[in-house]
Amino acid sequence: MATGRGRLLLQHWRGLLALHWPPGGVGAAPGLAGEAPGPAGFRKRPGTSYAGTATLKQCARRGRHYKQPSADHPASLESMPSEILLKIFSYLDAVTLLCTGCVNRRFYHLANDNFIWIRIYSTAFSPKISNWQVNSAEKTTVSMNLLSVEDKEAGYWKKEYIAKQRASVKAALARVLKPVNPYTGLPVKTKEALRISGLGWVIILKEKNGKEYIMQHIDLLINDSSVTIIWYGRNWPQLATLSTLDLCGVTPVFRDRSKPPSKNGPRWLSLIAKYNLSNLTESTMIGWDRLIRIFCLHPGLLVGLWKREEELAFVMANLHFHHLVEKSTLGSATVPYELPPHTPLLDDNPEYGLHGYQLHVDMHSGGVFYLCGTFRNLFTKKGSIENGYVKLVVIRFKNNTEHLPLIGKVGLSWRTDVFSGCIKSCSIMDITLLDEYGKPFWCLSSPVCMRSSVPSDGPNFLGQTYCVDYVDSEGKVHVELVWIKETEEYFIVSLVLYLKIAKINHWFGTAY
């Protein structure tokens, strides 16, 4: 943050007002005989130069006039001449200088001064000097930068500094995320990447009249292959006035790893998903208890409404680890991060179909896992294509050895600052499907619910049958379960993935 020199300079300036202010106000009369007044009436001593000439000219063109401070109008930063303000700003660090530029229009233009920002830029990114010597190329570069300050538009070096800082953070994250876990196909050090970037998440609630409410996340749960982010509080806007909800990742523009990220400093927003709140209807409701009803909006958003008031109780976002950091940091406030173009992988035997696939599936809530399973060597033949999908069977009805129990009492935990509860038969499902090369092929994290169903063709089980269904633009998941009353537990007796043919053709460059 600020070094404090600006505050000392301000005190010193106030002490000089009574001694050296020319009669009649700023710019009234020159000081000592034979000395020409500098900008704004200040005497320019031999060898003195003024930084920010272009900025001063801009202020002069705007016709700024400053009155002499009096007892009724004491000296303030706003009433100071631009030269003094530029001198004060020159002692600020980058974060404080950006915050200062948000005070008003005049401070914004002054805080864009290229002379100040090229000093900050040069200090942060100057080439390392060995043996106290600088080669001629480095000297030429520095001199050329100084000569080009006045040729650049105001704020040029501020933009260059921010771009360079973000590029360095991006490079550091790429190095951290490079090692991949062969077990899940996901980066090994995702948690470390979250710490390095200072990443957090916000939701932006937008009213129909354009007003916005930005809410910081309250709670965060990091699971095996996903992250769950929770918002709750007492100051929600009325649901009837809201139109959309934006989910954004937020990172500090300048990250000091030795300190926790500041919530008040300049931050970068990266849009992850946009949701239409008019879709909170009966068709998207997945569960309820005596206090709330919960709704699922794709991708991965859970919205809880109070039953009595029909107002927001909490919001829960579920994000899969696959490309999590990139989506949360590399987009903009209005445009999501766009994945790099995919290069089709070689399908060594397109007539054979899919083979050598691996599935990792979790079902959990509130840090409690009901299922954590890995299935290897999955395959399907080319003939298993129906209605635009390829059928990939993971657990079969007729093979009892493949059936799996869910551990514990299944329910989706929720809480606010006042109440908490658990909605039965609901949970969060994470799917990570790897192709034959161990690359993530289809990844998702979403709330799901178990609904009563009619048993499919297969053996008759002694117990009520339930199903879990999930659908998005890339595929479908269908799970069938049986409730065993004697042991009071659910058993998964069927698990089938349906993969979109268009997704497979895009991935392998085939034409199924």
Automatic annotation (TrEMBL):
SUPFAM superfamilies: F-box domain (SSF81383). Keywords: Signal. The lineage of its organism: Eukaryota, Metazoa, Chordata, Craniata, Vertebrata. PROSITE patterns: FBOX. PANTHER family: F-BOX ONLY PROTEIN 15. Residues 74-120 form the F-box domain. CDD domains: F-box_FBXO15. Residues 1-28 form the signal peptide. It comes from Canis lupus familiaris. This is F-box protein 15. InterPro entries: F-box-like_dom_sf, F-box_dom.
